């Protein structure tokens, strides 16, 4: 093993043309290694190719070209072992309405060939908070409970890698917190977690490393901390107490006056302090009615990296 949970080399996927649609190149030669034990975020705008990538890892979509290794197993040469190493919580709820949570987990374990004695059904029910609903029909479960059951189903074969495809899209805060607690717990137990999310704040909080996919290509891959430090720009917005023009500014600070009279200053927080900006404002005799600062966050990084492509 190389220390990577996933190794992807020159992965390409072209969806074939149909009588009504043209052929679509969804992945254009992706190279990506995902380290063991990480919580790895896969971000990208709609249609970037994230689901295609995840579905290839899950064995649900056939790749057109390239090499995929899951937990050291080549997907083409060792399909069974590579599949057994990964569990996927899908975006869409696909539960049999007449199965109870317990039955859903048992059937899923059976599909993966987990012997009865090795099944962890009760442990999983406990983890996903469905012990008291173990015998209820799935159709009687709330939306949040169904999502939790999907997580449980992804865990029945004790995979080393767990993939979560937009796990918190449209779920309430309570469920989101519970999901993240579970994910952290599983990660602390050694499981590698890969997740796609549209919530950049969530990626910022949860992920050690992030890859951004745009138009079928990985445009950036770095630690979350490095990505954030790429943009250490800060903005200070000053609302003067009476109409004022921009003051003279020292090097490293740029200013702009908005149509409604606010003064917007931008500077690098590593090089210039907020105090220097305020000093320039004061020495021009400008009184301040209100002031606020804004720091670049992952959203800014994301926009700056995906905007121009
Ligand atoms: N089965 C399919 N047949 C043809 N084209 C497809 C198919 N699935 C996806 N595509 C196309 O491939 C491209 C990538 O789609 P994909 O679903 O992988 O993107 P995504 O990043 O997951 O987006 P989203 O966040 O909206 O799910 C899109 O242009 C999409 O329309």
CATH class of the largest domain: Alpha Beta
Structural class: alpha/beta
Give the count of structural domains. Answer: 2
Going across the major beta sheet, what is the strand order?
6-7-8-3-9-10
pLDDT < 50 runs, ≥5 residues = none
Percent helix, as a range, is 25-40%
Number of strands: 14
Output the CATH homologous superfamily of the largest domain.
P-loop containing nucleotide triphosphate hydrolases
Mean of all residue-level pLDDT scores: 89
Name the helix and strand elements from N-terminus to C-terminus, one letter apiece. Answer: EEEHEEHEHHHEHEHEEHEEEHEH
List of distinct ligands in this structure: adenosine-5'-triphosphate
N→C terminal distance: 35 Å
Give me the number of helical elements. 10
- In percent, how much strand structure appears in the residues? 25-35%
Largest sheet: 6 strands, mixed
* CATH architectural group of the largest domain: 3-Layer(aba) Sandwich
Q: Cα-atom Rg, whole angstroms?
A: 24 Å
The global form is elongated
InterPro entries: AAA+_ATPase (IPR003593), ABC_transporter-like_ATP-bd (IPR003439), ABC_transporter-like_CS (IPR017871), ABC_transporter_ATP-binding (IPR050763), P-loop_NTPase (IPR027417)
GO molecular function, one term: ATP hydrolysis activity
Keywords: ATP-binding, Nucleotide-binding, Transport
Pfam families: ABC_tran (PF00005)
């Amino acid at each position: 093993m190389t220390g990577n949970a996933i190794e992807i080399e020159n992965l390409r996927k072209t969806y074939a043309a149909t009588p009504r649609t043209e052929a679509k190149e969804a992945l254009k030669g992706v190279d990506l290694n995902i380290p063991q034990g990480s919580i790895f975020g896969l971000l990208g705008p709609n249609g970037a190719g994230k689901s295609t990538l995840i579905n290839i890892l899950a064995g649900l979509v056939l790749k057109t070209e390239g090499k995929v290794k899951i937990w050291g197993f080549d997907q083409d040469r060792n399909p069974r072992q590579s599949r057994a190493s990964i569990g996927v919580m899908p975006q869409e709820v696909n539960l049999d309405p007449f199965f109870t949570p317990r039955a859903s987990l048992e059937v899923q374990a059976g599909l993966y060939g987990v012997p009865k004695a090795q099944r962890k059904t009760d442990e999983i029910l406990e983890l996903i908070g469905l012990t008291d609903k173990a015998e209820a029909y799935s159709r009687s479960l709330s939306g949040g409970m169904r999502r939790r059951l999907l997580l449980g189903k992804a865990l029945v074969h004790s995979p080393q890698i767990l993939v979560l495809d937009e796990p918190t899209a449209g779920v309430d805060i309570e469920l989101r917190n519970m999901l993240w607690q579970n994910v952290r717990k599983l990660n602390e137990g050694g499981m590698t977690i890969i997740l796609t999310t549209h919530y950049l704040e969530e990626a910022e909080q949860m992920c050690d490393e992030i890859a951004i996919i745009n138009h079928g290509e990985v445009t950036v891959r770095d630690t979350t901390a490095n990505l954030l430090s790429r943009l250490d720009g800060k903005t200070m917005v000053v609302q003067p107490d009476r109409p004022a023009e921009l003051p003279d500014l020292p090097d490293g600070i740029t200013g702009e006056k908005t149509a409604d009279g606010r003064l917007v200053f931008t500077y690098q927080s590593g090089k210039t302090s907020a105090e220097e900006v305020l000093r320039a404002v004061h020495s021009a005799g400008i009184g301040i009615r209100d002031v606020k600062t804004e720091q670049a966050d992952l959203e800014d990084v994301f926009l700056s990296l995906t905007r121009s492509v």
